[in-house]
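Protein 1 of 2
SEQ + STRUCT:
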Amino acid sequence: MGTLFRRRRYESMRIMRTLIQGPLIVASLAVGLQLASAAAPLSANDLSLARRNKSNFEAGIKRRDSSCPQVANAVSTCDSSGACDFTCGPNLLKDRDEGKCECILEGCPAVGNSTRFCNASGICDFTCNGDRKKVGDQCVCDTEGGCPSCTPSMCPIVPNAISSCTSSGMCNFNCTRGLIRFAGKCNCNEFFCTTSAFDNASNAWCNNDTGSCDFACNSGTKKVGDNCVCDVAQCSSIANVASSSCPSANAPCDFDCAAGFKRDGRQCVCDDDQCPRVPHAAFSFCNDSGTCDFDCADRFIQKDRQCVCDPARCTDVVPNGASVCNSDGSGCHTTCNVGFRLAFGQCVCDVDQCPYITNSFTFCDHSGACGFQCYPGYRKENGQCVQGSIGAALCRVNECPVIANGRRICNSSGKCDFTCLDDFTKSNGKCMRTRCTKASQCPAVANASSICSRHACSFECREGFRNVNGVCVPKPAPCTKKSIALYQGYQSGKRGQRPATVTSVEACAAYCVLRKCVSFDFYNRNQCEIQIGGGGFDRFGSAKRVVHGVPGKCSDFIGSIPIKAAGKACSNLQVW
C-alpha cells in the first residue's frame, strides 16, 4: 500500500508539471514520442497509451475488483460488460493478449545525470551517473565539497546537439536550430523546423535520415554549416553580368549588368535603350535571343559585329572611273581610271597620268580621254608605236631645230617639223602669236564657244561646264542634301499618312523631305509613316525598334525636345 501511495504521489507531481509547462510542451512531447516510435517496433498509439495509463491507473483503483485475477503492476477491474480487465501502471504498455503490463524504455521519464532502464519488476527505474546518488526521483551530489567539475567534452554525445555544463557542474546540451529537446534527445519538429529558423533560407524540412532540421538557401547564398552565406560565384555566372559582389557575409550576392542590359530580378535582360551605337548602323534593337543587334545603313553590311562598306552597293556610275569601298570600309568613294584625275566628283583627263608609249607623245583628246601620236617613221599597232618600214630614215626629235613658242616633232614623212604652243600659230617656219578678226578663225574647243577678243582667240565654256586647265568639264551637281535628326527608339503618337514601303531609313528621310513633312517614323525595317502638319514632336514617346526623324539637326532641338533623354539617341543624317 505504501508503494502504491508513493507512485500516486509521483504521478500527481508529474501531472502538475505537465499542466504548468503548458500546451506547447505537451505538443512537443507528442512529436518526440512519434519520433521515438519510428526507431522501435512499437507504434505511436502504444507509446501514447502507455503515457495515458497514469490517469487510467488512478481511475482503475477506484473501480478495482478483487475477484478478478491480479496482474503485476496493474489494477484488476471489471469492464462495462462485466468481464475482468486490468489497467497498467504509469509508463507501462498493456499487452492484452499476454495479459501483462510491459515496460517501455522510451516512455520512461528522463532524470538528469541518470541512465534509464526497466527493472526486474517490469517498471521504469534509473541509476545515477558519476558521484551522484539516488534521492527520490532525482540524482544529487554524493560528496561534501559539491559535485565534481564538469567538462563539455566529457559529457555524453547527443546527436544534433552542443554539449555544455550547468552552473551546478552538471552536463547539459542545447539542440541545434529547428530541433526541440525531449526525453534526453534533440528531435525535429515541423512546427520549429521552418525557414524562420535560418537567415536567407528558401525551404526547411525534417531530415529523417539524420534526425536534423535541414534547409536550402536562397539564390545568391550557399550553405555553410547552419548558415546561408553570400556566394559571389552565383552572381558572376549569371549571363551578361559586368560585375558582382557580396554586400555582407550573410546577404545574397549582388551584381551589375553589362552595357545594353538591365536588371530583371536575378537576371540581366536586353534593353533597347542601352544597346550601344554602332557606326554606320541605321538603328539598334534587342533581337529574339535577348541580345543587342543592329541593322546597317544603306551601302553597308554587317561583318564581325561592325557595319562595313559593301562593294556590291557602290553602284554610282562614274565616266572614266568607278565607285569602290574606302580602304577602311567606312563608305564608297570614286576612283579614276589611269590617265584621269578626280575633280569635283568627276574623272577628267590628266595628261601627266596618261600612260607612256615609246616613240610617241601623249595628249588629252576632245572627249577628255588620253591619246597618243607616234613619231614620224612609226605607226600605231596594238596600242604601241612600231617602226614604219625597214631601212627608212628615222627622224630624231632631239636633233630637230628649236622653234620659239613651238614643240619639235617628226612629221609623217620622217622629217623635222614643229607645232606651236597655245595662242601661237605656225607662219613662215615660226610660231607667231595668234591674231583673229572673228571667232570662226579660232580653234574649236569641246563644250565651249570660241571668242575672238582684241585679235586673240579664247573660249567660254557652255552652261553647266567650266574651264579646268583649258578644258571645259561639267560643273558638279549643286549640293541639295538636307539634314535629318534621327531619334532611335522613339516615335510620334500622332496619326500620320498611310505608311509607304521603302528600302532604308535614308529612303524614308528622302521621302519625308520630298513631301515636305514635319516628321516621320521608320519601323519594321521598311515602313515609312510621315506626319504632315503640326510639330515634329507631337505626342512624342519611346518605342522599341522605331526611328523618329525630324528635318533639321540634333542641335536644333536640344531646347524643344519633350524627352531630354532622347537627345542621347539622336544622330544627324543627310539626304538628297
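Protein 2 of 2
SEQ + STRUCT:
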Amino acid sequence: MDRGWIQFLLVAVPVVSLIGSWLALRAIAERYDRKPGTPKTRAQAGRGTKDRAGNKAENE
C-alpha cells in the first residue's frame, strides 16, 4: 500500500468516526429534549395549536 493512502486513512477514519458519534449524540439529545406526546417537528407541532378559547387554530 502506498504511504499516502496510509496517512489518509489514519486521518480520515477517526474524523468520520467523530462525525458519526456527534450526529448520534445530537439525535439522542433531541429525542430526550422532546416531551412525551409532542410531535417530532415544529411544523407538525403547529398543526395542533389551539387559541385561547380552546378552538383549533389554523396555519396560514
